[in-house]
Amino acid sequence: MRRQGVEAPIWSIRSPRDEPNQDFPVELDGLTGYLPDSFSDVLESDRTFRRQARKSIGELCKIWDGEGEKRRVYEALWLLPYLREQGISHVHTHFAGTAARTAFWLKKLGNIRYSFTAHANDIFCDEPHERLDMLIRNAECVVTVSEFSKRYLCDNFTEYSSKIFRVYNGIYPSRFQLSQSSPERPVIVAIGRYIEKKGFGDLIAACRKLGDRNFDCVIVGEGPLEQSLRDAASGDSRIQIAGPKCEAGIIELLARASIFALPCVDETSGGKDNLPTVIMEAMAAGVPVISTPVAGVPEMVADGETGYLVPPRDPESLARRLAELLDHPGLASEMGRAGRRLCEEKFATERTTAQLREILSQFRAFEPAEVAPAAPSGWTQRLFGK
Q1: DSSP state of 118
Q2: 3-state helix, strand, coil in the chain (%, to 5)
Q3: Which residues have C-beta within 8 Å of that of residue 180, sequence separation ≥ 6?
Q4: 256 neighbors 181 (Cβ within 8 angstroms)
Q5: What distance in Å separates the CA atoms of residue 130 and residue 108, rounded to the nearest whole number?
Q6: For residue 191, which phi and psi values (nearest 5 degrees)?
Q7: Average pLDDT, stretch 234-254?
Q8: Residue range 366-373: average pLDDT?
Q9: Would you kindly state where each structural domain of the chain is located, as residue ranges?
Q10: In terms of C-beta density within 10 A (0-12 exposed, 13-18 middle, 19 or more buried), how is residue 186 classed?
């Protein structure tokens, strides 16, 4: 967005902790502002803030049945003076979750318009239907990242379908080196959270069905199922539960990958992957992808052209496709090159960002607020410590 001329400030309602270092573009350094971890001091010292919060929480209890979301009110009250001072009339958030709920209160308390990008579990299972209805109804527009999730939202919230749009997530294909895999020791790569919907247990089971073939399977990530995955892989030295890697590490790993595998499944809770970024990254690196026809994945993997789609929870079918690509490296290479071309055509960031910018422009997101009241005395010092 910034490269395309949008100078929007960035705010995070949480500060990151205990996360691996990331290789973000240097021009983003220092641009993100963070809201307080706790509002206790503000509530104690700022009488106006406390009075506004008390009144607003009364309204919250009426519409959301309790004080469980009162932090969203605090966040909105905290941000409003800054947005007014800057003449900002519209905010855009990601996920129909915490930040979208904060945006809802920005509109309710300060008449700040909002939009959000819906991704996956935030709409499939996490957000209660009634509250998701309220978030969509009050938004100027809603963007979601696949045709699958657009159909899902339009089917479930028919009256708002005219303001629901699909914009694919994007990446920079040029950041990824084209894979130069080793024919002597091919590498199967999988990347994602160690959770049910990634299907890593099925991948481990499939690898165990590959007989005495010579390969490595590297599963990158972290999460609650780590120990169970280690237990499942125990005794097969070809399968590595590698833990997390930063983006540079991911780029290096994909540059020597022969196959990328992500056998996604629907979780028992209803959660599912929608448009996994790691599949785009594998495509950008020219690596053939084996996945499943879950949610938006068929919009990424062209079955038989850039990889294969196999039935979910079917290690036998997964093993057959893995064996086919391991045994025919020329075919794997051809599919990988086709995947790179498709990634450039469909998921390049400059293309997807332009689409998002155009939609937001239609809904006046970049228009300045008509009135920008002065911030309260002492507010800038409170927020920035100046």
Answers
A1: E
A2: 45, 15, 40
A3: 255, 256
A4: yes
A5: 17
A6: -140, 135
A7: 95
A8: 70
A9: 2-170+349-384, 173-346
A10: buried
- Domain 2-170+349-384 belongs to what topology? Rossmann fold (3.40.50)
Cite the beta strand spans of 221-362 per DSSP E: 239-243, 259-262, 289-291, 307-309
Determine the 3-state secondary structure of 304 from DSSP: coil
CATH homologous superfamily, domain 173-346: Glycogen Phosphorylase B; (3.40.50.2000)
Whether 25 shows a pLDDT value over 80: the answer reads: no
Task: Name the region of 67 (left: φ>0; alpha: ψ -120 to 50; beta: rest).
Answer: alpha
Q: Tell me the three state secondary structure of residue 288.
A: coil
Amino acid occupying residue 344? E
Residue with tokens 């929007």: 8
Q: What is the pLDDT of residues 209-235, one digit of tens each?
A: 999 999 999 999 999 999 999 999 999
| Fold match between domain 2-170+349-384 and domain 173-346 | yes
Q: Which two tokens stand for residue 358?
A: 């155009």
Say whether 189 sits in a helix, a strand or coil. strand
Q: How is residue 113 written in tokens?
A: 């318009």
pLDDT digits (tens, 9 = 90+) for 26-64: 888 888 999 999 999 999 999 999 999 999 999 999 999
Token readout for 137 is 């109804």
User: Among residues 337, 356, 329, 300, which one has the least CA distance to residue 146?
Assistant: 300
This prediction has a pTM of 0.90
Q: Please say whether the beta carbons of 288 and 336 come within 8 A.
A: yes
283 close to 340: Cβ distance less than 8 angstroms:
yes
Instruction: Please provide the size of the chain in residues.
Output: 386
